[in-house]
Amino acid sequence: MSRENIDVVQRAHQALNSGDMDALIVLCDAEFRLDMSDRIFNPAVYEGHDGIRRFYSEVRDVWASYIWEPEELMEAGDNVVALLRSGGTGRSSGVEVERRTAMVWSMREGRATALRFFRDRGEALKAMGLRG
């Protein structure tokens, strides 16, 4: 099952980065929970498929482009930890940002049930019991 979960997370990031929310939603449970509460600006939690669409709409309002590119994916039980290079270009400011972050995808039966964003990769790994 772990390879399947990693494949789903890879496809989810491809959909997210290309802006294909329909393709992302197909991979996510109807009760999907997107926890972006660790963000500095606009921390929030989004629920369900409508929440995914709302999150992406908010990102597009602020950023001309934004990516969450997995540098490493690792399994931790029913979770997949994605260590990311994330960044983008501000829509009105043109300011470019890049940083190293993490997302933890919770999986069940080949579908994503939740995603939790971490500004600090070490905190994500610690939360999953992967590195101290």
Explained architecture:
The chain is of the alpha+beta class and 132 residues long. It has 4 helices and 6 strands, in the order ααββαββββα. The protein has helices at residues 2-18, 21-26, 48-62, 121-127, and strands spanning 28-35, 45-47, 63-76, 79-90, 96-108, 111-118. It has a 6-stranded mixed β-sheet, with helices on both faces.
Helix and strand arrangement:
Layout (H helix, E strand, L loop, with lengths): L1 H17 L2 H6 L1 E8 L9 E3 H15 E14 L2 E12 L5 E13 L2 E8 L2 H7 L5
Parallel strand pairs: 1-6
Antiparallel strand pairs: 1-2, 3-4, 4-5, 5-6
- Label the overall shape: globular
What do the pLDDT scores average to?
94
**Gap between N and C termini:** 25 Å
Helix segment tally: 4
Radius of gyration: 14 Å
Strand order of the largest sheet: 2-1-6-5-4-3
Helicity range: 25-40%
> What is the N-to-C order of secondary-structure elements (H for helix, E for strand)?
HHEEHEEEEH
Biggest pleated-sheet summary: 6 strands, mixed
What is the structural class? alpha+beta
Number of extended strands: 6
In short:
The protein contains four helices and six strands; from the N terminus they run ααββαββββα. A hairpin with a 2-residue loop joins strand 5 and strand 6.
Name some characteristics of this structure.
6-stranded mixed beta sheet; 132 residues; 44% strand; 6 strands; 34% helix; alpha+beta
